[in-house]
């Protein structure tokens, strides 16, 4: 069971370099040494070979909304997009707040998805923010992190207790930073554009205020915290101070907030309605620079499937969110083509950093690492037709957009799960 990838542009995010060469896979892991005579040879023809993407914060409809996305459809979309590990959110219906629900999700994912699925569990029971879940039991059942999805735990005492207990279990807490008092009911970022469109808006300070609170609680409890989305320039100095102060904090950002801005909403296009809302161009560029410098650690899709009925509504009434598993890589490559990042830095944010934060072996091209790989042509152009996506829901803001970057193959533990 050996495969030799010949003549590839090897994207090594750990070493921070790309090089032309071969890669040997044996028994599902990256190997070094003589090539077996019976090895399968894949001629990469100079295409890029990189660690498979680890997408942190994916919403799947099971349980409760299988018509929007199932583990099978999400897994197929992930494989087609070069995503080899999806880390699912807990804000389902019912939420993943008991070991029984977690075990159901794990069984469904293992039987249906062609890629790895690692579930998060809820931080509070029923996502209500009033009582923390059994973090220890859920960790034993396989939860890789804890968070209430896009819901904010408003009660500071409850969040403090949850962080303290999570620290005792060595668990990672994932936080969504939006001040509820300011952001409740808002569908846009406050400013001239939102005023001209007559849209309910919230100040970017809603993110900064919530981040300041969570950082203070982190300093008090000594827990491990990952902030799922940092999207405004005003949040970055607080994040930098927390890291410089030695707090165990990392941050992520969605590809939509790095490649789109508030003007893309245009004529009330609901496929561009996201949580948090799209930001000003200055905020977008500040987030891009923070990702390039390493201040923001993780780039993710924040995959949020919504059916047609929930999107074909007036902008204020429409559901928020966009699918992103299959478009994550080509959208992220816009940052490379624009000169903001090189490929090793991009895959450090897409693969290595999220894997490292979750304590996973993948996300590397090191000998002995799992052979979770993506082969892609970074320069091949195409026009996205949303009806070609493999997700059940097709709510992508990139419909009709010209993009570059085509995945030609995806491997999980050395087994090919996608062939373009």
Automatic annotation (TrEMBL):
Keywords: Pyrimidine biosynthesis, Zinc. Residues 49-232 form the Dihydroorotase catalytic domain. One of its GO terms (molecular function) is metal ion binding. InterPro entries: Amidohydro_3 (IPR013108), DHOase (IPR004722), DHOase/Allantoinase_Hydrolase (IPR050138), DHOase_cat (IPR024403), Metal-dep_hydrolase_composite (IPR011059), Metal_Hydrolase (IPR032466). Residues 340-418 form the Amidohydrolase domain. Coiled coil: none annotated. The keyword Signal does not apply. Gene3D superfamilies: Metal-dependent hydrolases, Urease, subunit C, domain 1. GO terms for biological process: purine nucleobase catabolic process; pyrimidine nucleotide biosynthetic process. One of its GO terms (cellular component) is cytoplasm. The keyword Zinc applies. NCBIfam families: pyrC_multi. PANTHER family: ALLANTOINASE. This is Dihydroorotase. It comes from Wenxinia saemankumensis. The lineage of its organism: Bacteria, Pseudomonadati, Pseudomonadota, Alphaproteobacteria, Rhodobacterales.
């Amino acid at each position: 069971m050996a495969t030799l990838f010949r003549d590839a542009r090897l994207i090594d995010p750990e070493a921070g370099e790309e090089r032309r060469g071969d890669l040997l896979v044996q028994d599902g892991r990256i190997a070094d040494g003589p090539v077996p005579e019976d090895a399968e040879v894949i001629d990469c023809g100079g295409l890029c070979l990189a660690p498979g993407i680890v997408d942190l914060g994916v919403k799947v409809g099971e349980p409760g909304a299988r018509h929007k996305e199932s583990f099978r459809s999400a897994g197929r979309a992930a494989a087609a997009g070069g995503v080899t590990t999806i880390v699912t959110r807990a804000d389902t219906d019912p939420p993943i707040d008991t070991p029984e629900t977690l075990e159901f999700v794990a069984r469904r994912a293992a039987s249906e998805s062609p890629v790895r699925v690692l579930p998060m569990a809820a931080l509070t029971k029923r996502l209500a923010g009033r009582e923390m879940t059994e973090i220890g039991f859920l960790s034993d059942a396989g939860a890789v992190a804890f968070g209430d999805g896009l819901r904010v735990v408003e009660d500071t005492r409850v969040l403090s207790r949850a962080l303290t207990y999570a620290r005792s279990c060595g668990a990672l807490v994932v936080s969504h930073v939006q001040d509820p008092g300011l952001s409740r009911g808002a569908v846009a970022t406050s400013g001239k554009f939102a005023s001209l469109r007559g849209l309910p808006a919230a100040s970017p300070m809603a993110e900064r205020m919530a981040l300041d609170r969570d950082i203070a609680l982190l300093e008090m409890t000594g827990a491990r915290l990952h902030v799922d989305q940092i999207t405004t320039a005003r949040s970055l100095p607080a994040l930098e101070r927390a890291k410089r102060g030695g707090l165990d904090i990392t941050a992520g950002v969605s590809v939509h907030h790095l490649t789109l801005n508030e003007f893309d909403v245009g004529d009330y296009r609901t496929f561009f309605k996201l949580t948090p809302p799209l930001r000003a161009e200055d905020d977008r560029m500040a987030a891009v620079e923070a990702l390039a410098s390493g201040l923001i650690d993780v780039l993710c899709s924040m995959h949020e499937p919504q059916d047609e009925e929930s999107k074909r509504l007036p902008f204020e009434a429409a559901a928020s969110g966009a699918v992103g598993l299959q478009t994550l890589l080509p959208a992220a490559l816009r940052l490379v083509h624009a000169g903001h990042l090189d490929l090793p830095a991009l895959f450090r944010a897409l693969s290595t950093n999220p894997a490292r934060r979750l304590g996973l072996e993948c996300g590397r091209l090191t000998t002995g690492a799992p052979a979770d790989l993506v082969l892609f042509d970074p320069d091949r152009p195409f026009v996205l037709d949303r009806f070609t996506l493999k997700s059940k829901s097709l709510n992508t803001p990139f419909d009709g957009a010209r993009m570059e970057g085509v995945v030609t193959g995806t491997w999980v533990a050395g087994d090919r799960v996608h062939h373009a």
